[in-house]
Design goal:
12 helices, 3 domains, 15 strands, 429 residues, Nucleotidyltransferase, domain 5, six-stranded parallel beta sheet, alpha/beta, Rossmann fold
């Protein structure tokens, strides 16, 4: 849909999350845009509905009901009315979504402290989780294998069945043998999978080995060769890897959401992942007044932190942390005692575990008692602590950050997610 920005009088913004869909109507009043109405409907992306559009239409319908004039946005066939007419509709529609599950990745590299760390920092900006690691040195956390154990790598690939494999390692002009070993193991592993289940392979290692990696992988899998994520020991190049993983996420996750095709056809601009749109918002607020801005969004399945400090924009996405179906996974990062320390009453670790596991199963429920609410707020505090821990190494030293163990000076902090936005009182957000 082509869009003349000068003529845009009204905008419908849709935020399609994993647990809820929000609709916001924005209209031009004199020379300024104003928020006219905001509604929310439970997500319908999962059974029994299996249609993202059902919750979208419900949220849009609620806007028409609460506006004073009953302004219709949908026609009799349930399609959006655009551009705006005298009888209803809007000029533009923008859509963001975090309803898709993250990409599950197998990451293969050489040195854990060099190429793998660079890759993981790059991937932390995307909706992706590293489910398995292959490196010269075995790591203790998660599932892993060593580079010289081809059988172990193949078994790891077959066990995980990842959405994609990322191979990194070696500075440009550097090591070759470990990288080619990883490429060989991945090629053998993908060949044993049914053709439709074979994950694409993203190669972001030693640029001099692209042709050899392509020959090793052959035609058994889709190979996407991009610029080296660590071209030299003192230089990181995260952009190409981030862009490629974002593209895979759009293709293999966002694009396969039930009803996404209709939603994308409504949007006046390409649909964005929510975290990316959130980062753009923080960047806009920072540039608007020339200030440092911090944004945190504690969602149902994904939590995000983004900031702009001294003109540097940073983003970290935790697709394993959330307040609904990912609530139990918080315990993979912190012990129950870290949660109970925030509570004004005693609670056994086993009880906290049961509460979070039940929340993960019945993720649409809301706290029924004051105690339930305090537990959720304690979980949110721990998620915020983990987000800050991820972001601390990224913030630059300078006028805004005099000490590396302290936060930078922020002029504005923006909070999002139901646990913050829907807190009973502002003091509890």
């Amino acid at each position: 849909m082509t869009l003349d920005y000068i003529s845009v009088e009204s905008i419908l913004a849709l935020d399609c999350g994993s647990t809820a869909t929000q609709a916001l109507l924005i209209d031009r009043v004199n020379t300024d845009y104003r928020l006219i109405a905001r509604t929310e409907a439970p997500s319908t992306v999962e059974p029994p509905w299996n249609d993202l559009m059902a919750s979208v239409r419900q949220a849009i319908g609620q806007i028409s009901e609460i506006t004073i004039t009953g302004w219709p946005l949908l026609n009799a066939q349930g399609q959006i009315i655009t551009p705006q007419q005298q009888s209803g509709g809007v000029d533009a529609i923008v859509v963001v979504t975090s309803a898709s599950p993250p990409l599950r990745l197998l990451l293969a590299g050489v040195m854990p402290e060099i190429s793998l760390d660079s890759a993981q920092r790059a991937l932390s900006n995307t909706y992706a989780t590293v489910e398995g690691l292959v490196s010269l040195g075995r790591r203790d956390e998660g599932k892993s294998s060593t580079n010289d154990n081809i059988q172990g790598q193949i078994e790891l690939l077959l066990d995980l069945k990842p959405d994609a494999v990322v191979i990194v390692g070696g500075v440009d002009g550097g090591a070759s043998r470990p990288i080619l070993q990883a490429a060989e193991a991945v090629s053998i592993g993908t060949f044993t999978l049914p053709h439709g289940d074979r994950p694409p392979i993203v190669y972001a290692g030693n640029s001099d080995l692209r042709s050899e990696v392509a020959d090793t992988v052959g035609a058994e899998a889709e190979l996407r060769a991009i610029d080296n994520v660590r071209p030299s020991l003192d230089l990181e190049n995260p952009g190409p890897l981030q862009a490629e993983i974002e593209e895979l996420y759009r293709e293999r996750k966002m694009g396969r959401l039930p009803g996404f095709g209709t939603l994308a056809s409504w949007s006046s601009v390409p649909v964005l992942p929510t975290a990316k749109a959130y980062a753009y918002t923080v960047q806009y607020l920072s540039r608007l007044d020339g200030i440092n801005v911090l944004g945190v969004d504690v969602g149902g399945g994904t939590s995000t932190i983004t900031s702009r400090v001294d003109d540097q924009l940073d983003l970290a996405v935790r697709s394993d942390l959330g307040m609904s179906y990912n609530a139990a996974r918080v315990l993979d990062a912190v012990p129950p005692e870290s949660i109970s320390r925030w509570l004004p009453f005693e609670m056994e670790p086993a009880e906290i575990q049961n509460i979070l596991r039940n929340k993960a199963i019945h993720y649409r429920t809301i706290p029924e008692t004051r105690e339930d609410l305090l537990v959720e707020q304690a979980v949110a505090r721990e998620i915020l602590s983990l987000l800050l821990k991820d972001m601390m190494p990224r913030w630059p030293d300078g006028e805004s950050r005099l000490y590396t163990d302290l936060l930078p000076k922020f002029h504005l902090i923006v909070g999002g997610g139901g646990v913050l936005a829907n807190a009973p009182t502002p003091g509890e957000a």
